[in-house]
């Protein structure tokens, strides 16, 4: 492609609307343009990246025997009513009416449509197992569309659905999918982790997420390099305290802590470290009463774990200061477990604290030197907290690492959830009707573009992993106006490279060298060839590798061999 024919407008300024680097760089390099909140146009260079990712996904799906289909984006409400999701899905679902006032939605996912296909197409166990997939545009009316195509409202997803007679068959396809996902993200040149995940609203049993590791990731994942432990942070079990609780050494005493409502303020006021303080969080209970959750000051509440307690209301709801005052007659910010009078659930680590500080249930006061079993009953402890770096892995391989991740794929075993609701059955070997088992498998194709940039960029711009780069080579011709020879040599090289099926972006614009080099860096194409008057005088072309910035001169007459060899090498 010739840049002179592509109306590419790049810019240097960081766009105000873009918080994360991938969004900034995609806008600055002209890969995408915003139409409205969460809606983007894929411009020619961006679309090439998207198509490459689609192609890798498609190849790997085909390889495991999944069958490509294309379902309508618009779906009738009746199907969603059959599964109850018309009411459950809430405002994420974009609803609309046609001219006959029939209700529809723009598909955020396709379980219903697929299960409808399955119940019509599948009659016999002989047709099983079967996996269908599509690569298609979804719409979710996200409450906070942000980070560009990372969390858009309209986005491209690969969604696959499999149907089975028995669990063993579902397990096999589920494992084949996990392997295919591993090959996909490896082929795309991404650093990723596959983690055990919460099955969440979709329901069902087994579920794994695939995360591209990046600082800006919205999810936290916990893993251990010494074993194969890797889970979404919210699911990571915290280890039991390794050492027994210290014996009490202080008397319990009241300390004045005027205005100190947060752990930080209490620590400052009393000059103690946060791990010496216990915080008492009040949440709505399953009944009328509030429930207290006690954690160490340096630990965070894990809401999934809290919701697992039968005494706690789901979804978890923290009590407001007004609610606390009304229910207990005590001021929020100074609550503690001593004499609280409601049900108290204590985290394992908090239960192992001695001589601790906690709220006194009186305004502007805390208690110091508090001890379980002496000043208040010995607690029965539970796991309530998020794990922290350094906690030991349940796999026994050493300390846990916590990293941020971008969810790019998610696979689920759905069981009978949809097939039962929609009556998707086949005749089994005994000639009896049997409800199908189902799995579903998503990949955020458009999100991967942003995730790849989050993981691969520097101060000058994008540094594409080679498999997803919009072009393999960028050919820059310098000052073509001044020298005919530069123009003719570069034109010829461009034709030769294209003739060899090398994807080359040819910068033959009339522009200054500085502009061309800055754009080449911003666009992030792995291999750059520069032809200029000075080099040609010596019979050489400059080659530069984007990722390392290393450059060298290559004799013009061996440039094609050089490029062929370079492209054949695995990426550095
Ligand atoms: P998230 O937790 O990020 O909202 P999700 O768990 O709701 O995603 P799934 O239903 O698992 O999403 O969809 C499959 C994949 O589609 C996700 O793993 C993600 O990569 C992608 N995806 C989901 N929502 C969006 C979005 N708003 N923009 C871009 N990609 C998305
Ligand atoms: Mg998900």
Entry summary:
This protein is 27% helix and 27% strand.
Top keywords for this entry?
single chain, 572 residues, alpha+beta, five-stranded mixed beta sheet, 16 helices, 30 strands, 27% helix, binds adenosine-5'-triphosphate, binds magnesium ion
- Helical coverage, percent range: 25-40%
Beta content? 25-35%
Which ions and ligands are bound to the chains?
A: adenosine-5'-triphosphate, magnesium ion
Contiguous runs where pLDDT drops below 50 for at least 5 residues: none
Kindly state the mean pLDDT as a whole number? 95
**Sheet of most strands:** 9 strands, mixed
Radius of gyration: 30 Å
Shape: globular
Number of strand elements: 30
Oligomer: single chain
Span between termini: 26 Å
Helix count equals 16
Question: How does this model look, in words?
Answer:
The protein has 572 residues and is α+β, with helices and mostly antiparallel strands. The protein has 16 helices and 30 strands. Strands 3, 7, 8, 9, 10, 11, 12, 20 and 23 form a 9-stranded mixed β-sheet that branches. Strands 27-26-28-29-30 form a 5-stranded mixed β-sheet, sandwiched between helices. Strands 14-15-16-19 form a 4-stranded mixed β-sheet. A hairpin with a 5-residue loop joins β5 and β6. α2 packs antiparallel against α6. The structure holds adenosine-5'-triphosphate and magnesium ion.
């Amino acid at each position: 492609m010739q840049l002179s024919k592509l109306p590419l407008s790049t810019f240097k300024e960081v766009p105000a609307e873009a918080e994360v680097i991938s969004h900034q760089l995609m806008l600055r390099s002209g890969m995408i343009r915003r139409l409205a909140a969460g809606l983007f146009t894929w411009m020619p260079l961006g679309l090439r990246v998207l198509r490459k990712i689609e192609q890798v996904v498609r190849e790997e799906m085909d390889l495991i025997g999944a069958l490509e289909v294309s379902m309508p984006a618009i779906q009738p409400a009746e199907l969603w009513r059959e599964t109850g999701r018309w009411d459950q899905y809430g405002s994420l679902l974009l609803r609309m009416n046609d001219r006959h006032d029939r209700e529809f939605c723009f598909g955020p996912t396709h379980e219903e449509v697929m299960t409808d296909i399955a119940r019509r197409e599948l009659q016999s166990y002989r047709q099983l197992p079967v996996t269908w997939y599509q690569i298609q545009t979804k719409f979710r009316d996200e409450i906070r569309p942000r980070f560009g195509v990372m969390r858009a409202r309209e986005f491209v997803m690969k969604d696959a659905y499999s149907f089975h007679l028995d669990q063993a068959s579902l397990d096999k396809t589920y494992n084949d999918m996990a392997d295919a996902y591993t090959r996909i993200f490896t082929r795309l040149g991404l650093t990723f982790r596959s983690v055990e995940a919460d099955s969440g609203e979709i329901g069902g049993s087994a579920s794994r997420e695939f995360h591209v590791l990046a600082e800006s990731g919205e999810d936290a994942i916990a893993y251990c390099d010494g074993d194969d432990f890797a889970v979404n942070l919210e699911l990571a079990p915290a280890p039991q305290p390794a050492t027994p609780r210290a014996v009490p050494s202080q008397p319990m005493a009241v300390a004045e802590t005027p205005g100190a409502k947060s752990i930080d303020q209490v620590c400052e006021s009393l000059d103690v470290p946060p791990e010496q303080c216990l915080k008492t969080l009040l949440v709505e209970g399953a009944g009328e009463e509030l429930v207290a959750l006690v954690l160490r000051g340096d630990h965070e509440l894990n809401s999934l774990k809290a919701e697992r307690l039968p005494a706690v209301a789901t979804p978890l709801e923290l009590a407001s200061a007004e609610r606390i005052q009304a229910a207990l007659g005590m001021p929020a910010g100074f609550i503690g477990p001593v004499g609280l009078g409601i049900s108290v659930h204590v985290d394992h680590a908090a239960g192992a604290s001695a001589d601790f500080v906690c709220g006194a249930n009186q305004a502007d006061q805390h208690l110091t030197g508090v001890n379980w079993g002496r000043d208040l009953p010995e607690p029965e402890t539970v796991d309530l907290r998020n794990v922290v770096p350094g906690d030991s892995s349940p796999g026994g391989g050493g300390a846990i690492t916590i990293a941020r991740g971008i969810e790019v794929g998610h696979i689920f075993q759905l069981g009978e959830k949809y097939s039962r609701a929609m009556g998707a059955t086949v005749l089994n070997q005994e000639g009896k009707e049997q409800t199908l088992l189902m799995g579903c498998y998503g990949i955020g194709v458009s999100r991967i573009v942003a995730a790849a940039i989050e993981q691969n960029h520097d101060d000058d711009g994008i540094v594409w992993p080679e498999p997803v780069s919009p072009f393999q080579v960028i050919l820059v011709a310098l000052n073509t106006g001044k020298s005919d020879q530069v123009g003719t040599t570069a034109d010829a090289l461009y034709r030769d490279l294209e003739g060899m099926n090398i994807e080359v972006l040819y910068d033959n614009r009339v522009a200054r060298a500085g502009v061309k080099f800055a754009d080449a860096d911003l666009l992030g194409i792995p291999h750059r060839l520069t032809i200029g008057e000075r080099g040609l005088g010596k019979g050489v072309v400059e080659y530069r590798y984007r990722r390392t910035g290393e450059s060298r001169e290559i004799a013009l007459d061996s440039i094609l061999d050089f490029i062929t060899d370079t492209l054949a090498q695995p990426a550095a």
